[in-house]
Design goal:
InterPro entries: ChyE-like, Class_I_gatase-like, GATASE. It comes from marine metagenome. The protein is globular, with a radius of gyration of 15 Å. It contains four helices and nine strands; from the N terminus they run βαββαβαβαββββ. Helix content is 20%, strand content 34%.
């Protein structure tokens, strides 16, 4: 499978996901947006991975590629591509799907527990334990888009992620850390 990932800053890479992808013989390409790399065309990938970064979804004056990125996410969703958003990537997915993205009442920076929903309503939630620890580094969060399903919460951040069907997964926390 052809996987294309979007990198917002040099220090937010694929982490442990890179080895997982390569061990399954997926090919990887990357747009390093901080170097003004171009966005891929929708035909260039089957799976889009949108990583994190310190900017916010409305920081388009400082980061003009954010608008193009949101359009690429919308196109990937419309074309039923697989898509994974991590932290900022999840916020961009929520924004692209019409949900609100806003300042979280408290920043989450460290390892914190995440509780998965009691009702196991989809394939993503079914594989999650009732509670697990995840690394967080964010000040913003998001609402759950219409017709998406929540996949986790905790005391600090109500929405830790969502899924849309079996192709789209958005995670507020960082699963890429080893």
């Amino acid at each position: 499978m052809r996987i294309h990932w979007l990198q917002h800053v040099p220090f937010e890479g694929l982490g442990s996901m890179e080895g997982w992808f390569l061990s399954r013989n997926h090919s990887l390409t990357c747009s390093r947006l901080y170097e003004n790399s171009s966005m891929p065309s929708i035909e260039e990938f089957e799976w889009l991975v949108v990583m994190g970064g310190p900017m916010g979804v409305r920081d388009n004056d400082a980061f003009p590629w954010l608008d193009q990125e949101v359009e690429l996410i919308r196109s990937a969703l419309k074309n039923e591509k697989r898509i994974l958003g991590v932290c900022l990537g999840a916020q961009l997915m929520a924004h692209a799907m019409g949900a609100s993205v806003y300042r979280n009442p408290h920043k989450e920076i460290s390892w914190f527990p995440v509780d998965s929903p009691k009702e196991k309503t989809n394939a993503f939630v079914e594989i999650l334990p009732p509670r697990f620890d995840a690394f967080h580094w964010h000040g913003d969060t998001f609402g759950i888009p219409e017709s998406a399903q929540e996949i986790g919460s905790n005391e600090t951040t109500k929405n830790q992620g969502f899924s849309m069907g079996t192709n789209a997964l958005a995670l507020q926390f960082h699963l890429e850390l080893r």
